[in-house]
Every structure is written in C-alpha cells, then in structure tokens.
Write a structure and sequence with these properties.
CATH class: Alpha Beta
Number of helices: 10
Structural class: alpha/beta
Shape: globular
Oligomer: single chain
CATH topology: TIM Barrel
Radius of gyration: 19 Å
CATH architecture: Alpha-Beta Barrel
Number of domains: 1
Order of helices and strands: HEHEEHEHEHEHEHHEEHEH
Largest sheet: 7 strands, parallel
Length: 340
C-alpha cells in the first residue's frame, strides 16, 4: 500500500481516565480501577483509529502519564521522591524532574500489559513508542553516573531489553521518540545515533525514530517563533540519520517552517511526514493532506512515504483529535488515488 497512515504516538486521554487538555495529566482513578480504565481507553482509541482508516495503529500511550516518565516509572535507581528543577531541551523550559541516584535496572516489563492487549484487539499493524536515550538523559537529573553520555547508554540498554520483549509480543513497529535530536545537533551524529543503535540492537521488526519541534504547547510555540523563517536544524542531522541503521524517520511537515527539500537528505529511509498539525484545533481537509504528500513526493520516493501526525496529540481536545484522525485516513486515501 502506498502512503500508509499512522500516528506519531500519543492521543488525548478520555475525561474519565485523566485530566484533559494537559501534557502531564493527573489520573482520576487508582489501583485496579485505573488499570482497567487504561485498557478501556486503549481499546477506545484503537477503534477510533480503525474507523478513521489508519493503517498502522498505536496504543495512544493511554497507560502513560508522560511519554518519558511512563518508562522511567519502571526503572530502579531513580528517585521520584526528591525531584529537582532542571532546564529541559537546552533550558527551553524548566521542570521538576526525578534524579538518578543508583545503577539503572528494569523492575520488569514496562509496556507488556497494554501492548499484548492492543495486539489481541486489532488485526492492523501495531506501533509502540519508547522515549529515546538522548531525550531521557535530557529529562532527568543525574546524581550517579556523572556523565550524561554514560547515563544515556545505560538507558539505551534498558530500552533495548524492553524493545526486544515488545517485538516478541507481536509489535510491528518500535519507534524511539527523540525530540532532543533537534536541540543537541552537534551530539547527534556522534553519541546520539550510537545510543539509538544500542537501543535497537538485535531487533528485526521495523524501527523508527521520531524527531520534532515539540507538542503544541506555549513553551514550544514561543521557541519556534524565535527560530526565524526557516527551520534548518535538521540539515545538521539528516545525513547522519540517513547513514544510520534505523529504518524510518518521523518528522513534522504541514504548517512547519522546515524546508521540504531537506527530506532529500534522508535518502534510503522511510519518511513519516507529519500531515496533521498538532498545534492548532483547525481540522485539515483531505485535499490539504494529499497536497502536502504531493509536495513531499518531489523529494521522497512514493514507496518510502508514510502519512503521519506532526507530533503526539496528548494535550489536544478529544473531539478535535478524532476529527484529525479521520482527516488523516481520508487524506492518505485521496493521495493514493491522486499519486498512485
């Protein structure tokens, strides 16, 4: 199939599960009720994706409070009780973060429950996301390793262990989210990609990395407005990604200031282009989505192009997210008619 559609990762949590319109929502339930509600929400979004014609579905990260902390909660050696304030993404914003105070080890499986549940309830290809090692190391304080790179590789080993288990659970695509890749551009071609290679070691399923200019929250919007008329940061890392062992690269496209010709620097990779803007409540038309795909086809072979969202939709209103999923499915279908 040409132009298969998928999501970057997160989807809004229903109002009965957690606070709405927040990136860090508080759960509304606890214990067994919360565990059951997380799976109910996962099933809900699987149904919405299938109804919208999405080809590669995800769990919508319904069992995680946050895309990074959903993994960290299952890691020993991290102190959540004594958080410290730290600058995130090169001090773009401040956050209270947990602290690594000992050697990092997994407590057990991280996403087994929701992944096996999702696998049992859809016949579609299934994608599960994990935070990338560079992004984790930029979202947590270190009081043990004394070296950001050493800590990132320790996390990469844990990610690899969970990723191998996810593949055994029947996952078709494992994606690592690395928004830090467009912040620390000088480090990506060196240790950033090597840490990613450590995380994907031994996997035979499709592997992907998602890089982006962030959720549609004020801190990110303000930062993007300071970047000028063209966002050329990717120019520094795309050649290294093209040489990497990762199969797919996911990034934003619609309504971004990323020069679309930069996609040609990802030669040999499947490119997941964002055709859904997560920073606006305006719902894209299928015609607009198909047009963006057409523009990308000037620089990406049609058999390597996947229609996606710019980023996760966790902070978005649920009804808007549902409408955007339908637009994504319809836009990809229209593109197949137009460019197939």
């Amino acid at each position: 199939m040409l132009f298969p559609s998928t999501i970057a990762g997160s989807l809004p949590k229903p109002s009965w599960l957690a606070e709405t319109n927040k990136l860090w929502p508080q759960w509304k339930l606890a214990g067994d009720e919360l565990a059951a509600a997380k799976l109910d929400a996962t099933l809900l979004w699987l149904k919405h994706q299938e109804d919208a014609g999405i080809d590669i579905v995800g769990d919508g990260e319904q069992s995680r409070q946050h895309f990074v902390h959903g993994f960290l909660e299952f890691v020993d050696g991290i102190d959540f009780a004594r958080k410290v304030e730290m600058g995130i993404r090169a001090d773009r914003y401040k956050a209270m973060v947990p602290v690594v105070r000992g050697a990092l080890t997994l407590k057990g499986r991280v996403h087994q429950v929701e992944t096996r549940f999702a696998r049992a309830h859809t016949r579609k290809k299934l994608k599960i996301t994990l935070p990338g090692p560079m992004t984790i190391s930029d979202t947590i304080a270190d009081a043990h390793y004394g070296d950001k790179v050493k800590m990132a590789f320790a996390f990469a080993d844990l990610l690899n262990k969970e990723a191998r288990a996810l593949e055994a659970d029947g996952v078709d695509v494992i994606q690592f989210d690395e928004p830090a890749f467009n912040v620390f551009m000088d480090e990506v071609p060196g240790w950033g990609i090597e840490a990613l290679h450590r995380a994907i070691d031994g996997l035979t399923c499709t592997t992907a990395v998602h890089i982006c200019y962030g959720y549609g929250i004020k801190a990110n919007i303000d930062w993007k407005n300071s970047l000028g008329g063209e966002w050329r940061q990717y120019e520094m890392i795309f050649p290294a990604l093209a040489k990497s062992r990762i199969k797919q690269v996911s990034l934003e496209c619609i309504n971004s200031r990323v020069p679309i010709k930069l996609l040609s620097l990802l030669e040999g990779k499947d490119v997941l282009i964002g055709v859904i803007d997560v920073a606006t409540d305006e719902v894209e038309t299928p015609e607009k989505i198909a047009a963006v795909i057409g523009d990308a086809l000037k620089f990406v072979p049609k058999e390597r192009l996947v229609a996606c969202t710019n980023c996760g939709m966790a902070p978005m209103r649920r009804d808007i997210a549902e409408a955007k999923l339908k637009a994504l499915g319809a836009g990809a279908a229209l593109a197949r008619q137009r460019y197939g």
